[in-house]
Amino acid sequence: MELTDKSLFKTSCYINGEWVNSKEGKDFHVHNPYNQEIIADVPDLGKEETEEAIKAAEVAFHSWKKKTAGERSSILRKWFDLMMEYKEDLGKILTLEQGKPLPEAIGEIAYGASFVEWFAEEAKRIYGDTIPGHQGDKRIVTIKQPVGVVAAITPWNFPNAMITRKVAPALAAGCTVIVKPAKNTPLSALALAELGERAGIPKGVLNIITSNRTKEIGEALTSSPIVRKLSFTGSTEVGKQLIKDCASTVKKVSMELGGNAPFIVFKDADIDKAVAGAIASKFRNAGQTCVCSNRFFVHEEVYAEFTKKLSDEIKKLKVGNGFDEDVLIGPMIDQGAVNFVNYIVNDAVKKGAQLLDGGKTASSNDHIYLPTLLTDVDSSMSVYHEEIFGPVVPIFKFSSTKEVIQLANDTPFGLAAYFYGRDYAVIWKVSEALEYGMVGINTGMISTTVAPFGGIKESGFGREGSKYGIDEYLEIKYLCFGEVDDDEEY
Questions:
Q1: Among 117, 122, 256, 458, the one annotated catalytic
Q2: First-residue to last-residue Cα distance in the chain
Q3: Among 206, 218, 336, 338, which residue is least crowded by beta carbons within 10 Å?
Q4: pLDDT by residue (tens digit) across 407-466?
Q5: Which residues lie closer than 8 Å to 147 by C-beta, 6 or more apart?
Q6: Would you kindly state where each structural domain of the chain is located, as residue ranges?
Q7: How would you classify the pairing of strands 474-481 and 139-146?
Q8: What keyword terms does UniProt attach to this protein (predicted)?
């Protein structure tokens, strides 16, 4: 892998404007998921370094919050410009450590950068209100102020965009940030810090901690009274624990957790477009996204047609090294992910599901799971209840709108849902009835900077992106002015 700017490949952490290593001299390996080769050793930081980062962020907060919105906006805009200038290099780093195909990785860089651009503009639109007073000599005003020091814990599946989606609104609001990236994919985070430094982000405003001691770092962040906000993207299990841990200091929290997205095809749907939407929604990043379609519900009258056409398209998907040309599906992140998908598929087959495509790893690489299609699936199978996080399509059959709404909502999760149909009365009814934070109607792609991203139920709370995203990093303060003499003549 050749980079235009080799200095973007950082292997030290970034705390208080300095590139630092572990005080204990500890490192851990970062692997290429395609061939398991060691691509870097990065610092294995612990509680002591985390507390230093928290203190640095606290000091920096007092000056950063005092900068004008225009000043913060200008720095963020420079950061965006640098990301776009080096998007190919950033994409190569991402593919190397995460595995997704290079064009998809470069697409993630542009997507991640779009949040920086968006919130650079939103920084100048943090408006308060005036409220009619409740008494004649009172005047009421609300202002919005940054919450303070923010901790962001991000996942491996989008190691660039999940950082910018949290950091950009936080910095725009006037907060300072400590980022703990996933141990599988820390290099993308460090490259972002390098570009942030070049853009003029002051020391202490953005800090990156790499560590293989996730629990130790998490406890340091959640127990600190200095950290006033925690934003987490990851599993529901871990999210629940973080919520508990944050309760001791009553932090503001936002959680983007697991999903179990339904993909519904009604009998009046355009089947070809539904198949294209299914491919886009299911197989991006080898199915390793929280908004990937998980359970496919197809009306019995179009079940055979949809299944046949989808199978034909699945057979065209090229798997392999993310750096190879025309590859659409790369490796799973690690062996544990492969084992889990194997378990899900084998459980379904043992309980009566029919395996039409895939169902195993590629002969050339046992970390690549082949695109898999299962039919005759029912609710007794784990694939109905579990978040698959892999390139597996289980197809269920339904006969009525009432039935499919009940099936789609039969999960504790509520992140994303998708459906295809043409009857707009049904579209409105189904859109309102689905218990999900986001619904894609006749589209398999819903993620965009301009719309609020987030879920309900056990998929979490809070929204990222859009005009709503910056509110997660702001507090509303109410100011009541008394002794305003309403009777005085002027």
A1: 256
A2: 75
A3: 336
A4: 999 999 999 999 999 999 999 999 999 999 999 999 999 999 999 999 999 999 999 999
A5: 173, 175, 228, 229, 252, 473, 474, 475
A6: 6-257+459-477, 261-441
A7: antiparallel
A8: Oxidoreductase
